[in-house]
Amino acid sequence: MKTEWRIFLTIAAFLLFAAVLYGGWTWADSDGRVEWIGTVALLLSFLLCSMCGGFFWFVSRRIDLRPEDRPDGEIADGAGEIGFFSPGSYWPFGLALAATIAGLVFWQMWLLGLGAVAVIFAACGLLFEYYSGTRRTAEH
Description:
Elements: H1 2-29, H2 36-60, H3 91-103, H4 109-127
Family: Belongs to the cytochrome c oxidase bacterial subunit CtaF family.
Pfam family, one: Cyt_c_ox_IV
Subunit structure: Associates with subunits I, II and III to form cytochrome c oxidase.
């Protein structure tokens, strides 16, 4: 996590510098008016990268060093199980389809509502896939 927070906070510092430079440049170039769209976009990008970098910094202080964070770490130190990935789930496809429906909102607001409900339903289906139905792991 040490590498990740350094990367994100470095990018955040660059974005803050670019936002100040861009705002000042557009102010000087256009008779005292700042081009707000680009300036706000750079500031929001700075905030997003700062948030991610801050989260990684916060987590990196509370966990042990990973093999990739240690100077003496070997590739074999990172071997082993990474996690569990569902081999035959259809929910990711349903979630992508629901997000596509919600994204086609050009002039149809009812489509946004339908897509938002479908995204919530598909996300719940993906989340609770192994707690209900035929894939239930333990009987309670």
